[in-house]
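Okay, can you check this protein?
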Amino acid sequence: MFTFERGEGDKASRYELILKQLTHLLHGERDWLANMANSASHLFHVLDDVNWVGYYLMKDGELVLGPFMGKPACVRIPVGKGVCGTAVAENRTVLVEDVHAFPGHIACDAASRSEIVIPLRAGDTLIGVLDIDSPVLSRFDETDRAHLERYASILLENTDWSPIIGK
């Protein structure tokens, strides 16, 4: 059984604890589905002010819903559409302070106000994105970006993606 403390101190210090927790959570397990499911749950329970945490995976040229925590979500997102599709098309983390001001935002949960999306690459293959929504305007900042990109890197390095990428 896993129990996770939210940690004390500033945001960067709390993230350092979250990164250590992820390392322990992934220890001895390399299955892509198990690791994505557990890491989505982990982030959902340790981050403040989030209402959706999950993954979309590339399949046949579009993003398809993967493991997540939160309300039911959009199942398919075209590349270039919404925040997730933009992150894939531009191959970069997209941080949106106000989703209602983002052109083409796809509203899966009307309560969401801000969002961060991190592309996931296994080697040279873009396999999907980590998507986190918040009901709070401007919830995410550069500290979140840096640490969530590290979080994604730890997940990517400690998971066997061969069933996804076919290598």
Remarks:
- The mean pLDDT is 94.
- The chain is about 35% helix and 25% strand.
- The CA atoms of residues 64 and 76 lie 5 Å apart.
- The first strand starts at residue 52 and ends at 59.
